[in-house]
Structure formats: structure tokens, C-alpha cells
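Human: I wish I could look at a protein chain and see how it folds. This is the protein in question:
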Amino acid sequence: MDLLNKKCVPCEGGTAPLTGERTAEYFQALTGWQVVQEKELVKEYQCKDFAEALAFVNAVGTIAEAEGHHPDINLHSWNKVVVTLSTHAIGGLSINDFILAAKIDAVKGEKFPTIT
């Protein structure tokens, strides 16, 4: 499944969130993410220092803005970044969450290879 070449699309309320097999199918394309209560995708990244963590947060923000899909981002403990994805309009997961997760991991590998 090539999530990197997909584009997030606006999601309206009234659309059913992904569950079960569909969530599992998209989840297999990701590495290191956790599904929380079938409503959120969560991943923590560890950076080498505060500057790298802040730069990573800004890179995630740039991707999110380009996709029109915005995660919760928490920089804590000076070098750790937690990204939480959920489609708030539907109260759960949509394809957009998986697309954005894949794109965040791709930028991590391209621009921030020391982030684990």
C-alpha cells in the first residue's frame, strides 16, 4: 500500500471511522505507530537534542499544513516528540491519519535520520 503517494482529502462529519480489518490493513503499512482504542494513531520520536526535536515539530507542521490534516504534537522531556493523529470530524480514524503518519515517517528518514 503506497500511502506516500496519496493526498489527504477533506473529511466531513457523518462519515464512518475506519475499524477492524480496514484499520489493520492500513496499519500494516506503518512502523512503530500504535492504534489507541481504534480512535487514534500515536507515535513517540526521540531526537538527539532540543533543536532537532523543534525542527522535527516544524517539519511535521509543514507536512500537516500541506495535507490539510493536523495532528496533536507534544514536544516533551527536551528531546521527545509525540504525534497523535485522529480525524476529529468523525471521532476516529480515517485514511488521512494513515497517509499523514506515513509522510511524517518519510520526512523523519529523509531529514532527521538520527530520530528513533
